[in-house]
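Office hours follow-up: a student asked to see two folded examples consecutively, so here they are.
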Amino acid sequence: MKNIPVRDPLWKHIYIPEALFEGMNTKAFVRLTRIRQLGPTELLYPGAVHTRAGHSIGVYAIAKRLLDVLSRKGADSWLTKTGEISWYAAALFHDIGHFPYTHSLKELPLEDHEVLSARVVETGEIAECIKKAGGEPEQVAAIIDKERPCSDPETLFYRKLLSGVLDPDKLDYLNRDAYYCGVPYGVQDTDFVLDRLIPHKEKGIILNSDGILSVENLLFSKYMMYRSVYWHKQVRIATAMMKKTLYAALEKNLIQADQLYQLDDQSVFRLIESIDEKNIFPEKKCATDVMNRNLFVVIWEGLFVQNNPNHLILEDLKKRTEVESKIASALGINPAEIIIDVPEPISFESDLWIQDENLPFTQSSTVFSATTVQSFTNSLRKIRVAIPKHYCVRNPVEFQKKIASFFDLGYN
C-alpha cells in the first residue's frame, strides 16, 4: 500500500498509509479540523488557531519516528506488523472523540474523550480504514483507552508509549503550541529525545542517565507552557465561562450529555444559542460574552491550598456553584455573573526508569526531585474569582475583602 505525503509546518513531510489517510477524510476526523487545539487561547495569542486535526497528524509523525527508533534498538523482537499499524492508527485517531472548545467540558458529567475515541475507532468508516491498512480496530481502541481490560503484552507496550513522560502526544503539543503561540517555552529537541529512548517490554521506554536532560527539559517546558499559555488567567476565565454555561444547561436538563459529544467549536455555540429559556438560564450570557470577547475580569486570586477544606470542596463542580451563589449574595450580584475557576489537578509525570542508575527519574541524578516536581503543580494551581467588568468600577477593594473572607474564614 502506498503512502500519502502530508505537509506539516513542524515535522515537514509526513507519510501516511493510504488507508489511514482515507480515515482522515471521514466525518469523524474532519470534525477535528473545526476544533482548535487551544480553544480560547487565540484571545491572548492570535496565532493559536491550530486544530486537533493538525495535532493528531503530528502525533502520528512522532509515533512513527518513535517506533522506528525503538525497533532498531530491539523492540522489533516482540512487535507484529498488525500491531505496528494499530499503533500508527491509535496515534492518528487518539483525539477522534475529543470535546469541542478545548477543556471547557472536562469537569462536566460526561464520558472521558478517550472512551469516546476508542468507541469511534471500533466501528464504522474509521474501523474499515484501520482494517484496510492492516491493523485491528479493537487493538487500536485498547491502546487509546487505557482503562479497558487488556492482557496482550504488545498492546500494553503501545499503551505505555502513547501515555507517558516522553510520549508522542506531549512531544507534539508542546512544540506545536509553542510554535503557533509564538513563544519559545515548549520547544523540545525531539531528535535528541528519541535518540536517547530505550525500549522495555514491560515499562514501555526507559533511559540511561545521558537522557535525563530530555526529561528535565520536557518537565520545565510543560511548566512554562502551563504558566504562560494553558493556564494564563484570561484563558482560564474564558474556559470557565463556557463551562459555567454548559454545566447549568446540563443541570437544568436544557441539553443532554450525548448532544455534546460530536460537536465542534462553532456548533457548540449554536447549540447554546438555540436554548430559549432566558428566565431559567441566565448563565447563557457567559457563553455569549465569550463569543463576543467580553470576558469577566479577575477580581481576586490566591493559591489553591491542598489541605484547606474550603479549597478542596471547590474541586466538586456542584459545590463550586453553591459557593459562587453565596459569594454573589454577599456581593449583591446575580450568581450567573460570577465565576470561580479552579484548575484541575495536573500531573507532571516523571516515573521513567533510569537504567544505568537503577533508580526512578526523581531519585536519580536529576535536580527534579519529587518535591520539586510537586512544587510545579502547587505554584500553578490558583483559585480565581471573576465578575463582569462593569462591577469593578464600584468598589473593587470592598469586593476583594468579602471574597477573601470566604476562602480564609469559611463559607457560613
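And the second, which I mentioned at the end of office hours:
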Amino acid sequence: MQSSMISGQPAALPILVDGLSAALRLSTPDGWIEARRLVAGDTVLTFEQGEVPLRAVHCSRQAAWVPPAFWPVVLPAGAMLNDQPVELLPAQMVLLESDLAEDEYGEPFVMVPALALVGWNGIRRCAPRDTTIVHLQFDTPQVIFAGGSLLLGCGGHGSAAANLFRCDGLITLRLAEARRLVADLIAEGNRAARIAARQDAAQAAFVA
C-alpha cells in the first residue's frame, strides 16, 4: 500500500483490524505455504468447498503504533492445535468448534472475532509489530486452514473484510455473543481442572 501525500508529508499508515500475517502458513494443494507467497490464481484449501482459487491478494503495512484497543491477539502454541504461536488481528474471524456452541446455536461450528478468544487457552494480546498484512480475496467468503484446528475467515479484502464476513452454512457471532461463549468455555475448563485436581488428590491419598 502506498502512502498518500498531505501537505508534503506522507500519510500515516492505516490501523488494520483484520488480515493475515505475511508469515502465516496456509494449507494448499502444494503443502503449507506462507501467505506472503500466494498470488491471484493460486489454490487454497478451504473448510467447506475444498480447493478454491484466489481471486486477488492484497498486501498492507500495519501501523508501527496503534492504541491498545487495536492490539493483536496471540495464540500460544497448542491453543488451537497450532504448532507455533500465531498473531491475529483483533477482528480477524476464527472458526470455533464447541459443544457449548451447538447447545446455544444449534451448530458446533461458529465464527468469532479473534478478540473474543482472549483469556482462553492462554490466548492474550500483545503490542503490534511493524509488519505486512495479507488480505486474501475469493469469489465468495471462505474459511481457510492455518494449521491444526485453526481455521480463519476470508471475507474479502481491506480493513472491513472481517467485520463483514458472512459464509453460507456458518454462524457468525458478534463480539458480545462470542465473548459470552468463550467465557462459558473458560468456566467449563476451570470446572474440569478442579475435578481433575480433586481426583488426583484422592488418588494420591489412597496410594499413601
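Two things to take away from it. Residues 100 and 185 are 7 Å apart (CA to CA). The chain has two helices and 17 strands.
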